[in-house]
Amino acid sequence: MNFTVIDMNKWERRSYFEHYMNVTRCTFSITANLNITQLLPVLRAKGLKLYPAFLYMVTKTVNAHREFRVCFNKEGELGYWEKMLPSFTFFHKDDKTFSTMWTEFSNDFDVFYQNYLDDMNRYGEVKGLSAKGNEPPNTVNVSCIPWVSFTGFNLNIYTDGRYLLPITTCGKYFEQAGEILLPVSLQVHHAICDGYHAGVFINELQEMANNCEQWLSPDPATL
C-alpha cells in the first residue's frame, strides 16, 4: 500500500492539473459498449460470473496506469498508490438496497475470483452501506446497474471537487447484430485524465475481453 508523493516541479502534467483544479474544476464521463461476445461464453463454460470478471478487468487496467491511481492522501498530499483494490457494490434482493465491499486484488484471476467468492460468502448478507468495513484508502470504485442497458451514465459529485480516482459503472448486456455488448461508463477528473486516457482505459478493457483465454485459466479437464 505504498503511496508516492508527486514532485510538482518535475510533473509533466502540472499545468493541466492546476488549470482543471483551480480555474475550471471539472470531471467528465464517457460511455462505450464493451464487446463481450468472446468473453461471456468462456465464463459460462467455466461456471464463472461476469461481474467479478469485470471487476478484475477494471482493476488490472487501473493498476497498469499511474493516471488512474492518482489522488490526495489523508495528509492532503497529491500522489499515487502503487496498487489499487476494487471497492464494488452489490444488491440485496429482499429489501432492494445495496452495500459496498472491497476485495484483495491479485493479477492471478483465479486468486482474485476466490477472494471475491470468500468475501461474498462472508459479507454478502450484511446490510448497510459498507458490508465489510475497514476499507483501505487504496480502493477504486466500481458498480453495476444490471437492470438497464444505458447509453450514458454520469455521477454528480457535490463535494469540493478533489476526488480524483476513476469510477466505473457497467450496465445490462444486450445482443445486437449477433454480438453481445456491455455498456460501460467511466468517470474521471480532468485534472488527472484527458480523452486519451479514457480511450486507453476502454480500449484495454476491450483487449482483455478479446483475449480472455490468456487470463482465464484453462479448464483442467482440457489439459
TrEMBL record:
Keyword set, alphabetical order: Acyltransferase, Antibiotic resistance, Transferase
Source organism, top-level taxon: Bacteria
Free-text function comment from the UniProt entry: This enzyme is an effector of chloramphenicol resistance in bacteria.
One Gene Ontology term from the biological process aspect of the record: response to antibiotic
Enzyme Commission identifier(s): 2.3.1.28
Assembly with partners or alone: Homotrimer.
Residues annotated as catalytic: H190
Family: Belongs to the chloramphenicol acetyltransferase family.
Catalytic activity: chloramphenicol + acetyl-CoA = chloramphenicol 3-acetate + CoA
GO MF terms held by the record: chloramphenicol O-acetyltransferase activity
Enzyme class, UniProt record, top EC level: transferase
Protein name: Chloramphenicol acetyltransferase
